[in-house]
Amino acid sequence: MAKSCEPPEPLESVSAIVSKRHQSTKHSAFVPALYWPVMLRICLGVFLLIALAVVLPGCNRHRKAPEIAYVTVPSAVLRDRVAALYNKSGEVKNGDKVQILERERRFVRIRTDAGIEGWIEQRYLVPQQVYDAFQKLAQQEQSDSPQATGTTRNDTNIHLAPGRESDHLYQLIQGTKISLFKRATAEKVLPGAAPKSAESGLSTPTVQEDWWLIRDPQSHVGWVLGRMLDVDAPLEIAQYAEGQRIVAFFVLNQVTDGDKKVPQYLVALTEPKDGMTFDFNQVRVFTWNVKRHRYETAYRERNLDGVLPISVSQEDFDKEGTLPIFILRVKDDNGTVSERKYKLNTPIVRRVLAPGEQPVKSRSKRRR
User: Fold this and answer.
1) Is residue 102 classed as helix, strand or coil in its secondary structure?
2) What CA–CA distance (Å, rounded) separates 282 from 259?
């Protein structure tokens, strides 16, 4: 066999082999570096997503709550724009809850609970705080007993406090039946009166007006101007008022006359003018005379500095049995209010003294 004449390949030296491995390792180390920008972008995106997930709920918590208001007029038309010529986009009524979307001078754009939007005059609305105050007032008076019932003479506003300038929300129409709880007075500045002058020392002429805390058939509670209502005292006893104003009346009990039951009344009266320092200055008890079939005055007390409310209930008096009682609250000359209890054992009314209590003499002075 012929042998090849080509010389054999030279053996690689150790240094060459080490050099090749070093070059291979060097290039492979730079391969991941090509993906670093992509990996960085992915990590940054994940970080941003996590940050948004943490921050957005906090932003939602601090987002401004919608502004709520309530309608104070019987009804009002919503306009599609603020201009002399406009189209009717809807209508709202007294007490409706609306959301304020935009303000422009004396008009606001609102949205009703039904989703209807339009413009309305701002003076026809009150804020949420006023509504909440009316709710609180109604809650405070929910356990109080009415002192009388009445009827509105005209359409009138229900105010948050005594006074013409106090906030009002609800309106009563003429002839609404209401319950009366408390009386208060507030000043009314006379129209055209000049303000008080520091140089002259003259004060602005004012008059005092009576106000009543009332509850209407919808359970709205607030203050109504006294001259806007009439007390619905029963005609059979109102005719004996003798020119005085009846401010409270109560049925004490009933007596039998033939085939009918006739109520017997406690009535509180005052002078027929506003601004008095007392709620009532006399009380009368009217009992029914079964023989004569008519009301008679069984008890009268005058010259009182009476304060409402008056309480009426029943109490057991052993041998006399269960009798109707009433409690009057009366101020003394120092302004201290004390209670006086009375019982009716038809037709006699007597004072019920507490242990150690001394009878108080009736005032002899006459009010002017």
Assistant:
1) strand
2) 33
Q: Does residue 211 lie in a domain region? A: yes
Which residues have a Cβ under 8 Å from the Cβ of 192 and sit 6 or more positions away? none
* pLDDT confidence bin for 55, thresholds 50/70/90: low
Domain count, the chain: 2
List strand residue ranges (DSSP E) for 114-176, in order.
117-121, 125-127, 148-152, 156-159, 168-172
Torsion sign over Cα 6, 11, 13, 16 = positive
Which pLDDT does position 286 carry in this prediction?
A: 98
Q: Are residues 163 and 210 in the same domain?
A: yes
**Domain for residue 175, yes or no?**
yes
Query: Is residue 238 in a domain?
Result: no
Tens digits of per-residue pLDDT, 125-157? 999 999 999 999 999 998 999 999 999 999 999
| Assigned token pair, 367 | 């009010």
List the CATH number of the domain containing 77.
Answer: 2.30.30.40
